[in-house]
Amino acid sequence: MAAFKDELSTAVVEQLGSEIAAAWSSFDEATFVDLATSGLEQRELKERVQLISDALEATMPGDPTDAARVIRSVLDAGGLQGWSSLPVNSFVASAMIDRPAVGLALLADVTPRFSAEFAIRFFIDERYDITMRQLGEWVGHPDEHVRRLVSEGTRPRLPWAPVLRRFVTDPTPTLRLLDRLFDDPSEYVRRSVANHLNDISKDHPDLAVETATRWAPRSTHGDFVVRHGLRSLVKRGDPAALRVLGFDPDVAVELIELSCSPPAIRIGDTITIEFGLRTVASTRAAVDYVVGYQGVHGRKAGKVFKLTVRDLPAAEVVRFERRHRFDHVSIRRIHPGRHRIDIQVNGRILGGIEFDVAD
Questions:
Q1: DSSP tag of 302
Q2: What is the maximum span of the chain, computed from C-alpha positions, in angstroms?
Q3: Are 334 and 357 in contact (CB under 8 A)?
Q4: Whose C-alpha in 32, 144, 280, 300 is 20 to 30 A from the C-alpha of 117?
């Protein structure tokens, strides 16, 4: 599979240059392509975005209104599809930061092509008041992409983007927006709201639980937003978050006959986890397992993996089985040594077992 950075290739730059030239006869297409492709192949994704954005700033009209008019002409002609709009969003954030009314309106037009969630964060930082007023208007926008831009662009800890420190410290301004979006008719928007709530839970767990408690009875689309928004707290075994989702962390659950087979494996092999659960009273159970990977300097903090949600009948043993592969992935290398698996039910660790992983 091609790397994300390769989506911004020389061919994409040339296509973008051709689209702009068709919309604006004075565009110096050759200079743009030369600037935007100089050293392009040696750069990572963010650097490629910045390089192409800088080339646009050097060749597009200097007046923001004129530049916006050119970009809209490209959009009207069906251009700026997919990845090519990413550096255009970056250009808007840079060249129009002093003309926020122009820049924000343009981002709303471009975001259906490729989300402007990264670009709008610059307006939030630099032109806070006018941007927040605009976001408040966009929660009622007819286009789901624009409504999603409200929730995704204001996420305190959006992946691959600079942290919005003001919302890490105080997320209440974004919650006023999310209160109007959590039950949005679009699943695309609701998923963004859930991810935003999960961001908030990392810094303000009590506020996240309080918000989920307000939303849960008002939702007309099921419990996905609340459930997905509290997922990090549930993995951490937060009792209040578990109770919002209908789990009772106080009900006693017994772990029966935990085993891992084979007892020793090599990197790349799969281990089978088997166990039973028995409870004294019927209960709804969030069943997870926690892998304590061996690191270079000792065992790491456990990584929680979701297994299932199951209703456990009183006094009966319910059996579970899961296969887990111990192989290198992009975010984790497997080291030889003693590893551990624990079983977690409704946020409580019930017991664990250790096994060896060899090269």
A1: P
A2: 79
A3: yes
A4: 32
DSSP 8-state secondary structure symbol assigned to residue 297? T
- Sequence-ordered alpha helix ranges (H) in 154-261: 165-169, 172-178, 187-203, 205-215, 224-229, 231-235, 239-244
Taking the C-alpha atoms of residue 320 and residue 187, their distance in angstroms, rounded to an integer, is 31
CA distance 343 to 347: 10
Q: Which of 303, 323, 201, 210 is nearest to 259 (CA)?
A: 323
- The 10s digit of each residue's pLDDT in 169-218 is 999 999 999 999 999 999 999 999 999 999 999 999 999 999 999 999 99
pTM: predicted TM-score of the whole model, two decimal places: 0.89
From CA 29, how far away is CA 18, in angstroms rounded?
7
Contact 88, 36 (CB under 8 A): no
Q: How far apart (Å, rounded) are the C-alpha atoms in residues 42 and 55?
A: 17
Rounded to whole angstroms, the Cα distance separating 132 from 154 reads: 10
CA nearest neighbour of 64 among 94, 28, 96: 96
- Read off the tokens for 316: 């009966």
Residue with structure tokens 């660790």? 349
Burial class (CB in 10 A: 0-12, 13-18, 19+), 77: exposed
- Kindly state the tokens that stand for 237: 């075994």
**Structure tokens given for 154:** 């204001």
Q: How far is CA 156 from CA 128, 148, 171, 179, 200, in A?
A: 14, 15, 8, 16, 7
CB 117 within 8 A of CB 153: yes
A 10 A CB-CB count for 291 gives 19
Sheet holding 283-292, edge to edge: 264-266, 348-358, 337-345, 283-292, 303-312
Query: Would you say 225 and 182 are in contact if contact means Cβ atoms under 8 Å apart?
Result: yes
Write out the DSSP string of 309-336. EEEEPBT--EEEEEEEE---BTTB---S
- DSSP 8-state symbol, 82: G
